[in-house]
């Protein structure tokens, strides 16, 4: 912290989410006790992929007055885009501003990391030792990610301690958030025919059974005796008025 600059800059995404809002409020509370001013630069959506809407939101980071900051705090995990986080860090370094990153390790920064390992190990032990599961399919998070690697290491350790063999074919990675389409960004031309509208929707949504609505992951399923997805889509797009 540069003591001659009593301004803290915070870069965050989706601050309205409980998990990030708690941390930002805590920083603001402690900063207030010490007569520091806090400037918050927030995008309303996380930036897994920068859409046309996201391109506009990201411009908020162009408004950061680095020359006024004593420190920049980057909630890298909330931003969820390494390129954008790295650009923020580099701009801060160029201005001589120290950087604190939250929940993601970044070179040349003061990294604040949360410890998930102990609680995760308890979950794995519960599945294996309490429920007696022997054949377990393991879904990790992002590939080549330190948090995913840590969880895999714990999984292997607990397997070994219970005389179980790790089977690589039972391990998979889940890039869910990065791949799911946000339905808020799907746009349908109502001037098209019902069939063309449905085709346009499917091309944009990619997976009609699983997508995002902002920060919420939506999964669709239908009762065996009810109508299937195709029937619902035909009915919905057929009901849209043209023009």
Provide structural commentary.
By secondary structure, the protein is an alpha/beta fold. The protein contains nine helices and nine strands. It has helices at residues 18-33, 52-58, 76-79, 82-94, 117-130, 146-161, 176-179, 194-205, 229-239, and strands at 7-13, 37-43, 71-74, 99-102, 110-112, 138-140, 171-173, 210-213, 216-219. Strand 6, helix 6 and strand 7 (171-173) form a beta-alpha-beta unit. Helix 8 (194-205) packs across helix 9 (229-239). The termini are far apart.
Describe the largest sheet: 5 strands, parallel
> Which percent bin holds the helix content?
25-40%
Radius of gyration: 23 Å
Globally, the shape reads: flat
Widest beta sheet: strand line-up: 2-1-3-4-5
Which features characterize this protein?
flat, two-stranded parallel sheet, alpha/beta, 243 residues, 9 strands, 40% helix, five-stranded parallel sheet, single chain
Reconstruct the topology from this structure.
Layout: E1 7-13, H1 18-33, E2 37-43, H2 52-58, E3 71-74, H3 76-79, H4 82-94, E4 99-102, E5 110-112, H5 117-130, E6 138-140, H6 146-161, E7 171-173, H7 176-179, H8 194-205, E8 210-213, E9 216-219, H9 229-239
Parallel strand pairs: 1-2, 1-3, 3-4, 4-5, 6-7
Antiparallel strand pairs: 8-9
